[in-house]
Amino acid sequence: MFSTKLSGAPLDAPWDGADWDDDPDWDFNSAANDTPEQLYAIWDSTVDRSRARLAAALADGGLDQLVHLSRPDGRHLSLRRLLCDLIEEYGRHTGHADLLREAVDGLVGEDPPAGWHPESNRPLLSS
C-alpha cells in the first residue's frame, strides 16, 4: 500500500492478484499454506521495493512533497505525513501480531525466528 499511497502505482504481487469479491478475507486466508520462508521472502522483497521507491521520492522532492493519497476534501498529504502514518500503523500491527503469537505459542519477545536476517542490510537512507 505504501507505493499506491505514494504515487498511485498499482499493487504489487501478491496483492495484485487478490480476488476480494470471491474471498473478502483474502488478507487472512492467502498465506495459510505458505511456509515461513515464503512469507519472509515476500516481506524482504516488499521492503526492498518500498525502500527504493522512498529513496527515489526523497531524491525527487523531499519530505514536504505531496503524495498521491488525499483526504476526503481532495487535499493531498505530504510524504512526511505518509511516513509518520506508516510508522504508527506498523507499530500498531506489530504489537497485535505479538499478542496473537504469544497467545498461541506462549513465547514472549519480539525476535524473528533464529537465523533469519533480512536479505537487504542496506540502511533506509544513505548519506
Overall pLDDT: 84
Instruction: Please bin the fraction of helical residues.
Output: 40-55%
Which class do the helix and strand fractions yield?
mainly alpha
Total individual domains: 1
User: For the report, how would you describe the main beta sheet?
Assistant: 2 strands, antiparallel
Low-confidence stretches: none
Rg value: 17 Å
Order of SSEs, N→C?
HHHEEH
Principal-axes geometry comes out as globular
Number of helical stretches of at least 4 residues? 4
Beta-strand share of residues: 5-15%
Count of extended strands: 2
Alpha-carbon distance between the two ends: 27 Å
Strand order of the largest sheet: 1-2
Quick summary:
This protein has 127 residues and is mainly α. It has four helices and two strands.
